[in-house]
Amino acid sequence: TGYIGGRLLPLLVADGWRVRCLARRPEYLSPRVPADVEVVQGDLLDAASLSAAMQGVEAAFYLVHSMGATGDFETQDRLAAENFATAARAAGVQRIIYLGGLGEDQLDLSAHLRSRHEVGERLRAHDVPVIEFRASIIIGSGSLSFEMIRALVERLPVMVTPRWVRVTAQPIAIEDVLAYLRAALAVETGNRSLTIEIGGPDRVSYGELMREYARQRGLRRWMIPVPLLTPRLSSLWLGLVTPLYARVGRKLVDSLRHPTVVRDDSAQRLFAIRPIGVGKAIARALRNEDSSFAQTRWSDALSAAMNAPRHWGGTRLGNRLVDSRSAQVAASPAKVFAA
Q1: Is the pLDDT of residue 323 over 60?
Q2: What pTM did the predictor assign?
Q3: Who is most buried in 131, 142, 210, 306, counting CB within 10 A?
């Protein structure tokens, strides 16, 4: 039900894979998948629920985070990854494919990016080969980053922009992310784990992305840079002018203080995929936004857990509030299981 998993699922089916999906609430997901897709109940925070779901699986997609959690989301991410990798090893899974976050390992890394990297480490620690893709801003109709850009530009003719708006990133189109995920099922790894940085050909800032969006929409927008607005103040500012889920937005903004650019050429050497540029990626996203609702949105996994219409809320597990972009769905080829 999450943004990436919801779009990956039909592509895996079209590629001919037998797919098994893991969902905390199968009754929500089952009506939305093809008839030959298996849906099983499970929760990554409940290790006992994963054993049966992993049986017979060849490759498992891990597309989960807990950024919307009210408590310690890093602890929840750590536990989910441990449970997943342990169950995968016990079931004889041959490969885990994980989509994480781009950014150099450093002491002052944001909690969000630090957790994304730690999840990769936890998955690799259980003797199942892991292909970890690290991506920066994903541009596509319905993605959190794109919706933030769209909402800001559409609503604010004049923007007072904090310093993070000028930090360099290397965005990638959703179509290219999905292409990498699909190709990872067949790439030769020599039975070893790989960490692969992926991005489009352009290195730009959030400000430049907003200007390009405005140009394509025919909007005139002015940006006034200021060296103020801490990540917390920035998230409150965003909450006033965009329909963002506050906790997720705050953690996203905190990570924007770091450049997120590709520094390793492994993706070009291992894959024949050549990602499109920022202009084309935004144009595609706008066509999808303007024609109809996007296929999936970043908030879908939140709504799925509550069996309610889309809104920016959380998933209740006992007395905890948990959010996962794709924790609701685990799309899996037939052997492929994906969370």
Answers
A1: no
A2: 0.83
A3: 131
